[in-house]
């Protein structure tokens, strides 16, 4: 781990499992990156604020952080903000930006709709998006290998306009939960809105931030990660890194994982002054973004934690591979010992030996697609 809270700070919160504490530490690490990204005055001291961790060998925290910040600054973080009333065309606008134009400032500007009471000209929008296709399919590079067949775009847009009106009507009728909006997207059977899918999560989170529905809960995030049709590689990769660092199994039960998220958010949203680094950087993050850290931030931080790890290159990932293999070997020995103690014999679990494998080898993936459902063919 590039930056880790001092043991003295971790020990101030009693009763939490090591896995939860190291997740909290990783989140603070990424909050530091965000604060440095947003505050040039602090960025000048990046080497001092991100000290090297003994487990990282010769990887200098300042160099890695500076590289990460330079890459992140290439994005326009204000590009998808709307100031008009959130009428049905504004909902469609979010769908178009998130699905077809995200990561390309030129496309996002070109796809900006006239937000008034008139129905959008879907045929014109279809032609515009199809004109972005440079090869056989529309490739959205920011999501990894995410490609959409041009002939599917008209149907997608028609269904998006349909659900835009349904969401607006549901919000007008009364309070709507995040889970309801998320499920509405999945049930519409639009190919990019799958349970566990990145675009589904992003759109539902945008709608919560525009007050069309409630904010996502720890349980909403746990369900998104664990029981969806897709399995988001970015946040799950971040959780696996915590598993390796803590030598504690990642929770695979929704209630257990939701409790981990709840415990971490309780610290982040109301840090004790005694938690020196946590209080310092979380307070700066709140000052900069204007509101408390949320579950939306936690999901994004997990993605970026995994993404940043891939930037450290082959050498670091090989170190992680050795740790993963050592852990698997230890688990195999423990299982064999337990079987022997139970009278089952050492050979009882021999068939499982080949199932232990390392998920952090050279093919762990680059940072461009770490948030994404990579190799998605629409």
UniProtKB/TrEMBL annotation:
Where are the compositionally biased (Low complexity) regions?
Answer: 369-378
Q: Which domain of life is it from?
A: Eukaryota
Location of the region described as Disordered in the Swiss-Prot/TrEMBL record: 346-378
Q: Where is the composition biased (Acidic residues)?
A: 349-365
Official protein name in the record: Uncharacterized protein
Which species? Answer: Cudoniella acicularis
The organism's lineage?
Eukaryota, Fungi, Dikarya, Ascomycota, Pezizomycotina
């Amino acid at each position: 781990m590039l930056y880790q809270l001092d043991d003295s700070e971790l020990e101030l919160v009693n009763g939490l499992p090591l896995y939860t504490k190291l997740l909290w530490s990783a989140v603070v690490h990424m909050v530091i990156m965000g604060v440095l990204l947003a505050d040039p005055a602090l960025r000048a001291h990046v080497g001092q604020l991100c000290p090297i961790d003994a487990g990282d060998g010769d990887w200098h925290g300042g160099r890695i952080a500076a590289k990460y910040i330079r890459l992140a600054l290439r994005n326009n973080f204000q590009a998808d903000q709307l100031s008009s009333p959130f009428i049905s065309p504004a909902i469609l606008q979010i769908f178009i930006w998130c699905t077809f134009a995200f990561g390309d400032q030129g496309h996002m500007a070109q796809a900006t709709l006239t937000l008034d009471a008139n129905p959008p000209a879907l045929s014109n929008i279809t032609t515009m998006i199809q004109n972005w296709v440079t090869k056989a399919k529309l490739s959205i590079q920011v999501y990894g290998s995410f490609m959409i067949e041009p002939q599917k775009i008209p149907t997608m847009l028609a269904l998006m306009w349909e659900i835009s009106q349904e969401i607006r009507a549901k919000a007008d009728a009364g309070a709507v939960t995040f889970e309801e909006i998320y499920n509405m997207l999945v049930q519409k059977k639009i190919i990019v809105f799958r349970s566990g899918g990145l675009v589904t999560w992003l759109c539902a989170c945008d709608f919560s931030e525009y007050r069309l529905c409630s904010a996502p809960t720890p349980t909403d995030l746990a369900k998104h990660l664990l029981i969806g049709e897709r399995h988001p590689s970015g946040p799950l990769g971040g959780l696996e890194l915590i598993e390796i660092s803590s030598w504690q199994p990642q929770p695979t039960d929704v209630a257990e994982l939701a409790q981990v998220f709840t415990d971490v958010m309780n610290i982040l949203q109301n840090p004790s002054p005694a938690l020196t680094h946590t209080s310092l950087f979380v307070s700066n993050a709140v000052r900069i973004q204007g509101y408390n850290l949320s579950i939306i931030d936690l999901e994004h931080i997990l993605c970026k934690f995994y993404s940043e790890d891939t930037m450290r290159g082959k050498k670091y990932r090989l170190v992680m591979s050795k740790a993963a293999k050592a852990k698997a070997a230890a688990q195999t020995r423990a299982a064999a010992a337990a079987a022997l103690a139970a009278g089952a014999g050492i050979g009882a679990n021999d068939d499982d030996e080949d199932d232990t494998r390392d998920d952090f080898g050279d093919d762990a993936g680059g940072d461009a697609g770490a948030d994404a459902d990579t190799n998605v063919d629409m």
